[in-house]
Amino acid sequence: HEPRMQALSDDLAAQGLRPFHTPLGVMLDEGDPRSKCIRCATCDGFPCLVDAKSDADVMCVRPALKKGGVTLVTEAKVTRLRTSASGREITAVEVERRGERLHVAADLVVVACGAINSAALLLRSANDRHPRGLANGSGLVGRNLMKHQNGVMLAISKKPNPTAFQKTLAINDYYWGDEEFRYPMGHVSLVGKSNADMLAGDAPAFAPGYALDQMARHSIDWWLTAEDRPAVENGVRLDGEQIVLEYHDNNTEAYDTLLRRWIQTLESIGMADHVVPHALYFRKKIPLQGVAHQCGTLRFGTDPKTSVLDVFCRTHEIDNLYVVDGSFFPSSGAVNPSLTIMANALRVGDHLLERLR
């Protein structure tokens, strides 16, 4: 923690809460001269110009290309998956690249387009054997879309917050509820430090830049996540080539309660030093466009009637087709799903190695 965030952590701990250091995918070891991270103010929500984020490009794609045995095809779009006459195996992946149509074949095909686009690809690949979309005998391809109940809150402080690398503290004390609300609420963590340009997107057009700059300089910025429950009516469908998301909020009471609890918590830790009492809590619920935590559209399970994928993320109906991204979730907890997606991909990778042997 930088000093201001350490003081905040100490104050929360003094109230009996258990703040912890947020696990982050950044290459940061302050005792190692090879450490890439420079703890800048443009980490959260920005590309890293010094390659210090442990993203798929830096940690997976580049090492794989260096090792060999991998071909990366750029400027390409997969438009369709082709099956055999029986519909039991994928025979070709149809690709558009620079105006040319290509067909790529393999013994095993792994789709990992993200929960929305993976479902859309299977729907787009419908044929005589799979008239409702590939592997859609259950009718669940594209159904049960989840994206979490997410929101941001700016707590405007009396004194400036000079923190640059702010996203270092999180709280799960309300995850399973409390004495007044017996149901899970969710997760609270700091986000990257806001600036005037970020705030301008949600501010009235007439808001002066000076005011936004002062808000950013005095803000402590929070992220709140509540569980998004699977609902069959929430999902992905196609309207021609257009992807359409159909979504109705659920579990909003848990999110709203978490927001109220967190404001009460901030009010209890010495607002004279931290935040103006009973005022200046700016909050925004992330709308449908915010699908960074998308999952659930091709849920896995043991029963082909109630799931699309088996326990190794192979489609029940197509022997050589796997889906390895957030699509497989049957439900979603109230934390970022990335680590679970990664862990599952490694698990499925081990299974594929055994199958290939």
What summary fits the major beta sheet? 6 strands, antiparallel
Helix content: 10-25%
Q: What is the averaged pLDDT score?
A: 92
Shape: globular
* SSE class: alpha+beta
Span between termini: 47 Å
User: What's the β-strand tally?
Assistant: 13
Total of DSSP H or I helical runs spanning 4+ residues: 7
Strand order of the largest sheet: 1-7-8-9-6-12
What is the beta-strand fraction? 15-25%
Order of helices and strands: HEHEEEEHEEEHHEEEHEEH
Please give the radius of gyration in angstroms.
Answer: 23 Å
* Uncertain residue segments: none
Could you walk me through the main structural features you see in this protein, from its secondary elements to its overall organization?
The protein is α+β, with helices and mostly antiparallel strands and 357 residues long. Helix content is 24%, strand content 19%. It is built from seven helices and 13 strands. A hairpin with a 6-residue loop joins strand 2 (76-83) and strand 3. The model has no long low-confidence stretch (mean pLDDT 92).
In short:
Helices cover 24% and strands 19% of the residues. The protein is built from 7 helices and 13 strands.
Key attributes of the depicted protein:
single chain, 357 residues, alpha+beta, three-stranded antiparallel sheet, 24% helix
